[in-house]
Amino acid sequence: MSDNIVRIENLSHRYSRAWAIQDINLQIDRKGILGLLGSNGAGKSTTMNILCGVLNQTQGNVIICGIDMRKHPKEAKKQIGFLPQHPPLHLELTIHEYLTHCAHLRRIPRNMVKQAVEEVKVKCGVAHFSDRLLKNLSGGYRQRVGIAQAIIHKPQLVVLDEPTNGLDPNQILEVRKLIREIAEERAVIFSTHILSEVQVLCRDIVMIEKGKIVFADTMEAFNNYIEPNGVQVWFSNMPSKEALLQIPGVKDAVIQSANSARLVIDRNPAICETIIEVSVEKGWKMREIGLEKSSLDDIFKQLSS
Ligand SMILES: Nc1ncnc2c1ncn2[C@@H]1O[C@H](COP(=O)(O)OP(=O)(O)OP(=O)(O)O)[C@@H](O)[C@H]1O
C-alpha cells in the first residue's frame, strides 16, 4: 500500500460560502517535527481538525498510515494523537485519573491501562504530580498532560495546535524539549503562527496563507529562501549614495541619516564581508553593520505573490 504516515490530497473545506482551505496537498513519510505555519485565520485549525477526523472535509482525501479517514475513521484515529488549541482537560480530576480516563477512551486493553498510564506519566515528566488536580497545575504542566493524552496510545502521528501558546519562556523551553523527545518515535505536526518557534523546533515547514499552501520544504531550504535582502550600515565617514552603489552586490542604497544607510543587496552570503572590505579600503570607518530580518508578514507577501 503506502509508506506515508500522512497523505493529504486536494483537501478543500468551506464552512458556509467562503473556502477556509483550498487544494491542500501534504505528505509526511518520516518521524520528526513538521511545522505548520500560518497567520491567524490562515486555515491551520481547519486543516488539523480534518486531519484528526474532528471535521468532515468538503473535498479531498486524508489518508493516515494507508487508512482513509473518511471511510475508516475509527481505524485511522488509532494512529493519531491530537492536542487541540484548547486541550480537553477535566480540571477536577488528578493527573492519574485523567490519563486513566484517556486510556479507556483510547480503548487500550484493560490489563494494559495501568502500564500505559505509568509509562506516559514518566515520559512527559508528570509522574511526581500524579495525584495533583489538573486545576492546580501550571500552564506548562497542563500542556505536558495534554501531550501525555495525545501519545498514551502510542500513535504514529501527533498533531499539536499552538502547544506553546500562553506559556512563559521557561515553560516554552520545557514543552519544546518534550516535543523533541516524543518526535523521536513518531511524526509530529506542530502548528503555530510564530516563525521562530518553527525555526528552533522543526525539520520541515509548511506555510499556509489564505487557505493555500505557499511553501513546503525543509527548514534549511526555507532559511536559505528567506535570506535577508537589506543591510543597515553606520559609518563615521559617511560615503555618498553613488559610492555605496559601487560596492559589488549592492543594488540600491538609501541614505537614512548623516551616518547611516540602508543597502539593498543580492542574496550573497559573503555580502557583509565585501561591504566591510570596501569600507576599510575607502576609509569610511564603519561603526556597525546588521542584516535585516524579514518579518513574517514580508515573507508571506513574498510567498503569496
Ligand atoms: N466554524 C467556522 N465557521 C465559519 N467559518 C470558520 C469557522 N472556523 C473557521 N472559519 C474560517 O475559516 C478560515 C480559517 O480558519 P482557521 O481557524 O482554520 O485558521 P487558523 O489558521 O487556525 O487561525 P487561528 O490561528 O486564528 O486559529 C478563517 O477565515 C475563519 O474565519
Automatic annotation (TrEMBL):
Residues 6-235 form the ABC transporter domain. Coiled coil: none annotated. GO terms for molecular function: ATP binding; ATP hydrolysis activity. InterPro entries: AAA+_ATPase, ABC_transporter-like_ATP-bd, ABC_transporter_ATP-binding, P-loop_NTPase. Keywords: ATP-binding, Nodulation, Nucleotide-binding, Transport. It holds the Pfam family ABC_tran. PANTHER family: ABC TRANSPORTER ATP-BINDING PROTEIN (PTHR42711), ABC TRANSPORTER ATP-BINDING PROTEIN NATA (PTHR42711:SF5). Belongs to the ABC transporter superfamily. This is ABC-2 type transport system ATP-binding protein. It comes from Pseudobacter ginsenosidimutans. The lineage of its organism: Bacteria, Pseudomonadati, Bacteroidota, Chitinophagia, Chitinophagales.
